[in-house]
Amino acid sequence: MKINIARKGQLFLLISFAGLILTGTGLLLLPGVLPEGRLAFIDALFMACSAVCLNGLTTVPLTELTFAGQLILLVLIQFGTLGIMTLSAMVLLVLGKGLSYSDTLMISTLNDRFTLRGTESLTRTVVHYTMTAELLGVVLMFPGFLADGKGIVHSLWYSLYFSVGSFCNAGMGPLPQSAAQLNPYVQTVSMALMILGGLGVYAVYDLIRYFQHKTLYLTLHTRIVLRMAGILIIAGALLLWMLSHTDSETATLGLFDSLYLSVSGRTTGYSTVDPGSLSGPCQILLIVLMLIGAAPGSAAGGMKTTTLAVVIAALSASFRGDNNVIIRKRTIDLRTVLRAFTVMVLFILLTWAGTVILKSLTPELSSLSCFFESASALSATGLSTGSTTLEWGSGAKLLLILFMFAGRIGPVTIILFFVGKEKKECLRYPEERVIVG
Fold first, then answer.
1. Is a pLDDT exceeding 70 seen at residue 325?
2. Which terminus of the chain has a lower count of CB atoms within 10 Å, N or C?
3. Phi/psi at 261 (nearest 5 deg)?
4. pLDDT at 380
5. Coil, helix or strand for 326?
6. Are 291 and 308 in contact (CB under 8 A)?
7. Per-residue b or e along 162-188, where b marks 16 or more CB atoms closer than 10 Å to that residue's CB
C-alpha cells in the first residue's frame, strides 16, 4: 500500500510538471508572442521547460518577445516554483476549506521530512514565504529602476520580473545582458533574494518556528543548510576572484562580481559578467558550484548542499576509521548516506554523459563549453557560455530539455517512481568482507 501511494505521488509530480510544460509550450506557440511570426515548436518547448524548471537557459532572448510572451514565462516561473500541488493546496486554504486527508497524504508522500500533521503548516509556509519575499523584492527594487530612468511602468515590470526571477532562482530577465545591466543596488537586492530562495522551505519553516519560540533549537538539517550556504558563498567568491586573476587574457572579476556569481552560480543563473569570457579554471569552479546547488526544498537545483555535507562527513568518517557518520554529535543513518552518494554519483554520471552527447551533436563547441552547458541544464542553474542560441540543432536543444526536466524533478524521485519506497528489512544475510581500493 505504501509503495503504491509513493508511486502515485511521484507519478502526480511528473505528470503535473510535464503538463505545465506542455501548456506553456502551447501558449508560447500562439500568435503575439513574437512581434512577427511565431516560435518554432522546439524553441517554445525549450523556453517553457526552462521557465517551469526554473533554469533560465533560453534559445530566444526575452528582449525579442512581446509583453505577452514575457508574461507567459513569468507565470510559468511562478507556477514552477510553487508546484502544481502547492498551488492546489493554496486555493483550498484561501477558500478556508483546508486540505483534505487525501491532499495532505499526497503531498506528504513526496516529502519524507514532514508528518501528515505538519504538511498543511508546511504548505502555508511555502505560499506565505514565497509571496512575502517576492513582494518585498519588488518594493526594494522599484526605486533602483526608477533611479536609472526606466519610468514608472517599466520600473514596476522590471522589479516584478527580477524579483520573481531572483527568488525563484529562474535566471530570466527582460533586459539585455540580464543582471549585468542592473545597478549595484538592484544587484544587491537580487543577490539577497537568491540567497533567501536557496535556503529551502524546510529550513525556513524551522527558522520561523524557532523565532516564534515554538521550538527550542534548530534541527540539524537547518544548521547544515545555513553553514554550508555561508561556506560556499564566501569560499566560492574568494576562489572565483583569485582564479580570475591567473589569466590576463580573460575577464577579471571584482570582489562584488565574484560574490554575485558565487551566489548565482549555485542557484539562479544571473550574471554580472559573461561566463564565456572567464578563464577555464573559473568556468570549472562554476560547474562545481552549479552541480552542488542550494538547499533541499528550494527553487534551486543541483545535488543540494546537504548531500555534499553528508558525503564529506562520510569520507571523513572513513578516513578516521569510524563506523558511523556523525555530524554535530548526531549520527546519520545509513539510508541517508547511501542516498547522498547515489545523488552525487548520478549527477556526475549524467553530466558526463550529457557532455559526451552534446559534444557529438555540436562538434563546433569546445569540450569545456559542452561540460558547462550540460551541468547548467541538469542543475537548473541557467548560466551559459553564450552557446545556447537558435543556431543549435533540435537534437542539442532536446537533450537540454530532458536534462532540465530531470534536474528539476530529481534523479532520486525518478528512481523512487520505479522502485517505490524503501522496504522494511525483514531478513539479514551474513556479512562478508570484500577488498576494495
1. yes
2. C
3. -70, -30
4. 85
5. strand
6. no
7. bbbbbbbbbbbbbbeebbbebeeebbb
